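Changelog-adjacent note: as of this version, every example in the card shows the full chain rather than a window. The one below runs 401 residues end to end.
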Amino acid sequence: NASPKRIFRISPTMALQATTTTFSFSAPTFRSTPPHALTSKRRISIKASSSGLSSPPLLSLSRSNLKGRAFASDGSTQESPSVVCFGEMLIDFVPTTSGLSLAQAPAFKKAPGGAPANVAVGIARLGGSSAFIGKVGEDEFGYMLANILKENNVNNEGMRFDPGARTALAFVTLTNEGEREFMFYRNPSADMLLEESELDLDLIKKAKIFHYGSISLITEPCKSAHIAAAKAAKEAGVILSYDPNLRLPLWPSADNARDEILSVWDTADIIKISEEEIEFLTKGEDPYDDSVVRKLFHPKLKLLLVTEGPEGCRYYTKDFSGRVHGLKVEVVDTTGAGDAFVAGILSQLACDLSLLQDEERLREALMFANACGALTVKERGAIPALPTKEAVLDALLKAVV
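Full-length structure tokens:
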């Protein structure tokens, strides 16, 4: 379907260069008892993903500015963010050497992450407007994450701080091919403790798109907050975007994960899933069979996207379906690739929702999204690797030539 000679209509103007913050240090040490470890490791492949917009960093915030449960506004009068992302934000510790176990890794790169936060930053890097709603610990990592959102021009007025729980951590093992296994430290972490009463509903209701995952459905009180936020968005006419982002070790059981992920399925307008998630949700059916994928297409769904890593993605609407090929790149770390893809397509849809009815223009937007994901796997970590709009357009032009 995709022609290598396709002319891209995405304007290259206004692609602002963002400052990418990366962190590295030798092995992590804890001076006190480490957070309760949620054990289990499971390899999860994330498909090629796509874009985010770029923005100049705002002023850095000192620790004293961040004390308290809510993030204080700086008093500026900005437009309401087009895309509000809800869920977890955490620290990924990514090994500096691939192909080793966590115990064998000589050093780790400290990288901010968490799927919804990755999407929010990805959209801002691409030049769009986004916000993040979630909870972190009132600790050094929580302060750091709040600063990173601000530096990347993400509205974080909906961010909350918990004085009694730590910011979540995830240690990542990388194979030589860049695939990942996770060991999570949360149980409970602050993101699990967001309450309905702490939601910034005004921020949600004014958005064009409300994006979320499934990790926020695992435990209370965050589950109730998730459901209330999505309900408020739906009632306000906001488009609901859902990426299940399966992390099976975090769930009590596979059956519980499947039931809860599907419990909010029929309310979403846009859903992005991977081949592995299709196989999981359909209990082992063939994820490459269109008839199997169509079983997951509910009557009110506007767009179903299936990411396939370097192969690109498939798309399904009520009226048309097809495949858009991805870019071939050298893989270093697949962390954040799916989130970059989501950021890419949502950044395009936030500008023009009529793309959902125009297959040719939707395909161009998905090429952009695929390029976002491809560029992300070339570096370690999620947020540090998210591309600017300029970088994505340059990669697409080179691919055409």
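Structural remarks: The two ends are 18 Å apart (CA to CA).
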